[in-house]
Amino acid sequence: KKFAPNHFKSKNVKPLQFVDEEIQKTSQSSVFNFFKGLIGVQTINKESLRPAIAKMKEHLISKNVALDISEKICNSVMEQLIGQSISTFNGVNATLHAAIELALTNILTPKRNIQILNSIKSSESDRPYVIVFCGVNGVGKSTNLAKVAYYLLNNNQRVLIAACDTFRSGAVEQLKTHVYRFNSIFPAETPNCILFDKGYGKDSAGVAVEAIKTGMNLFSID
């Protein structure tokens, strides 16, 4: 609707001018703009960073980033910027981008090595081994679940996949396709890969609980 012809006629704005204005608005709301005040500061210190870091933390939380993760990102960025000197806005962008990238890399890098197969085989518990894939739409939950399931099936494990995304259209069908292909690749009299689903509009946690009660020993929950 923003780019409909009537919009330009009513406001007497040329299309390219309107696009430039929208880009400018987006740029002005960017987290990088919180740090513009650092341009020309001879040596960045904690005091000069505090206002920008506070705005950055507030911005991250407003975008649904968890409080503890927001604090870790902000603290990491602060540590990396202290002692630096930035002379241009492009310099601020590049420096801040690198600092945020390093902060996220440190947060997302596993602190311990997990050998899934060894954990499954050495488990003495009567409880099933459950792997949960969670996250917002589009981050690759189902794709990574399929990769892990393939790895487990290729190592002679039977897997039950619980379709707990009961909201996104096509989520269950996507997993059905994966399961069909797995059973084609690893044929057996009793399928080695099973899909547990209750369709759409159900309580995700309830579906997971029901799946675990089926008696399988290894679960992947999406």
From TrEMBL:
Database matches in Pfam families: SRP54 (PF00448), SRP54_N (PF02881)
Membrane topology: Peripheral membrane protein
Annotated SRP54-type proteins GTP-binding domain residues: 128-222
Gene3D superfamilies: P-loop containing nucleotide triphosphate hydrolases, Signal recognition particle SRP54, nucleotide-binding domain
Annotated TM spans: none
GO cellular component labels: endoplasmic reticulum membrane
Protein's UniProt keywords contain Nucleotide-binding: yes
Superkingdom assignment: Eukaryota
InterPro entries: P-loop_NTPase, Signal_recog_particl_SRP54_hlx, SRP/SRP_N, SRP54_GTPase_dom, SRP54_N_sf
Gene Ontology terms: biological process: SRP-dependent cotranslational protein targeting to membrane
Predominant localisation class: membrane
Intracellular or extracellular location(s): Endomembrane system
SUPFAM superfamilies listed in its UniProt record: Domain of the SRP/SRP receptor G-proteins, P-loop containing nucleoside triphosphate hydrolases
Any GO molecular function: signal recognition particle binding
UniProt keyword list: GTP-binding, Membrane, Nucleotide-binding, Receptor
Entries under SMART domains matching the protein: SRP54 (SM00962)
Recorded family membership: Belongs to the GTP-binding SRP family.
Record-given protein name: Signal recognition particle receptor subunit alpha homolog (Trinotate prediction)
Species assigned in the record: Myxobolus squamalis
